[in-house]
Specification:
mainly alpha, two-stranded antiparallel ribbon, 8 helices, 2 strands, 64% helix, 4% strand
Amino acid sequence: MNNPNHPHISNLIQAYHDVLDFTDTLDDTTFASSPLEGKWSPAQHLVHLNRCLGIVVWVSSWPHSLQRLLWGRSKRPSRSYDELVQRYQKRLGGIKAKSPAFFAPKSQKASQRKQITARLRTLTERYAHQLRSCSPEFLESQVLPHPALGKVTVLEMALFSAYHGRLHLGLLQRDLKAGRQD
């Protein structure tokens, strides 16, 4: 790819910067506190995004030959962002999605804020760097496993990662707004 201005990479970076920019506006109490009973705090959303993106970055750092050996090659073109989002929402089937235990964060303290946000910034930049180093053929042909979507191309994983960041930003904003109305 070797193009720092590629729209998919820019989209990914912007999605996570939007989440971080929003959470940077929150005071420490709001950052670490659940806005509603049973909902994650903003800090927990960021920890969840760190865990998810961290795994993608880790797996993406494996040698390409190992990735191909483990998961094979795609036999179809990559889906568009909109197609991927529709597929994900269809897979959830209108049920309330619940994160697998590993991805579900424990409560966080405000004192952990700098560490949590710095890690997400670092992971975002590292993932963008990994994507920039991939050829367009690799992005379209190599597949990776996704817990809800099954095998997706490397490009689709990048698209989903951007969607996932935006999804959690929307959940955060919705819950904070609802919490202020109570």
